[in-house]
TrEMBL record:
<keyword id="KW-0029">Amino-acid transport</keyword>
<dbReference type="Pfam" id="PF03820">
    <property type="entry name" value="SFXNs"/>
</dbReference>
<feature type="transmembrane region" description="Helical">
    <location>
        <begin position="297"/>
        <end position="319"/>
    </location>
</feature>
<protein>
    <recommendedName>
        <fullName>Sidoreflexin</fullName>
    </recommendedName>
</protein>
<dbReference type="GO" id="GO:0006865">
    <property type="term" value="P:amino acid transport"/>
</dbReference>
<dbReference type="GO" id="GO:0015075">
    <property type="term" value="F:monoatomic ion transmembrane transporter activity"/>
</dbReference>
<keyword id="KW-0496">Mitochondrion</keyword>
<keyword id="KW-0812">Transmembrane</keyword>
<feature type="transmembrane region" description="Helical">
    <location>
        <begin position="267"/>
        <end position="285"/>
    </location>
</feature>
<keyword id="KW-1133">Transmembrane helix</keyword>
<feature type="transmembrane region" description="Helical">
    <location>
        <begin position="174"/>
        <end position="195"/>
    </location>
</feature>
<dbReference type="InterPro" id="IPR004686">
    <property type="entry name" value="Mtc"/>
</dbReference>
<keyword id="KW-0472">Membrane</keyword>
<comment type="similarity">
    <text>Belongs to the sideroflexin family.</text>
</comment>
<dbReference type="GO" id="GO:0005743">
    <property type="term" value="C:mitochondrial inner membrane"/>
</dbReference>
<keyword id="KW-0813">Transport</keyword>
<dbReference type="GO" id="GO:1990542">
    <property type="term" value="P:mitochondrial transmembrane transport"/>
</dbReference>
Length: 349
């Protein structure tokens, strides 16, 4: 595998194309980074530090640098510098706004398996939907925006230090969490009861339909989560920048586009995860699992893991992280500040 010349803080794939983003995310969900020791992490950080200071040994290759950067970005929060708890690792690289999910798939897969238990009781449905949204909430909080922007202003006799904290309040995470749990449990339980009481469906068909109940529940909950947590952006706006990442202004129109793209991404994410495993398992149940029932759980886990690992890059690659918008489509006050045809915004995740 060939490696391009190393660029600090950037991806080695073309993030302007769908398949470039797809292969980028396929690379960064590598679960092997979960096994990296603190000693190896320190070595990777030292390697990147030497590259930045120009003291790098001539024996170090581009591959070494790309792999070192992947390890550091996977394990360390870009704003706080602290290691992220493994089950919640989904680290954003602030400078270029792409994300790492190596802890999301292996720790999320058991939850998916639980949600897809055939003929689950109501208590099991509630438990697994709650656990899924709790895991998502932990991921959201562990990877929250924790930047600090310091500006210094002066007067004739004094200097004033002003510290602006750009940190998402815990209250917004709480609102998103409660909304997601409520919608997921309500839809899952409601659809399950509706299917069980449907007289027009045969017992066999009821069993098949019930396998797909988690899909609308999770899709709706994920969409509600992101909408409620970022709803304030529709009123406050988000920053738009030029191609060199220089701020141009704050736009409510860009915020609307970003929220729409995010909602579509979150709604699509559960589709491969919760749609394909039931189909795969039903195909095996006709022959193999009748002869060897003990393979039921291993095959279910394998189907969920493969679907989860594929669904993540497929969904989050739908839109560029740094989305482009025509300047003429933005507010007039932003148009008056620049002659550029296009501006950009970070859609979030």
């Amino acid at each position: 595998m060939s490696y391009p010349p190393f660029e600090f803080g950037k991806s080695r794939y073309d993030l302007n194309t769908y398949w470039g983003r797809f292969w980028h995310f396929m690379n960064v969900i590598d679960p092997r980074t979960l096994l990296v020791s603190n000693t190896k992490l320190a070595e990777c950080q030292k390697l990147l530090s030497q590259h930045q200071s120009g003291t790098l040994s001539s024996t170090i290759t581009d591959k070494d640098l790309w792999e070192a950067q992947k390890v550091v970005q996977a394990m360390v929060h870009p704003d706080t510098g602290q290691k992220i708890f493994m089950p919640f690792r989904m680290a954003e690289v602030s400078k270029n706004s792409f994300f790492l999910f190596e802890g999301y798939v292996p720790f999320g897969t058991p939850i998916v398996v639980g949600m897809l238990i055939p003929q689950a009781s109501l208590s099991q449905i509630i438990f697994w939907q709650w656990l899924n949204q709790s895991h998502n909430a932990g991921v959201n909080y562990a990877n929250r925006n924790a930047t600090q922007v310091i500006t210094i202003t002066s007067s004739i006799h004094h200097f004033y230090l002003v510290l602006h904290i750009k940190n998402t309040p815990i209250s917004k995470f709480a609102i998103g969490y409660l909304t997601a749990v409520t919608s997921a449990v309500s839809i899952a339980v409601g659809l399950t009861l509706l299917i069980r009481r449907a007289k027009s469906l045969s017992p066999g068909l009821k069993t098949v339909v019930q396998r797909f109940v988690p899909l609308p529940a999770v899709a709706c909950a994920s969409t509600c989560n992101v909408v409620f947590m970022r709803f304030h952006e529709l009123f406050d706006g988000i920053e738009v920048i030029d191609q060199n990442n220089n701020p141009v202004g704050v736009s409510k129109i860009a915020a609307k586009n970003a929220l729409k793209e995010m909602a579509m991404t979150r709604a699509f994410l559960p589709v491969p995860i919760l749609f394909f495993p039931p189909i795969i398992m039903m195909a095996f149940e006709k022959n193999l699992l009748r002869r060897i029932p003990r393979l039921n759980l291993p095959l279910n886990v394998l189907a969920c893991t493969l679907s989860f690992g594929l669904a993540l890059p497929l969904s989050i690659s739908l839109f560029p992280q740094k989305s482009k918008i025509l300047t003429r489509d933005l507010e007039s006050n932003i148009q008056s500040k620049t002659n550029l045809e296009y501006l950009y915004y970070n859609k979030g995740l």
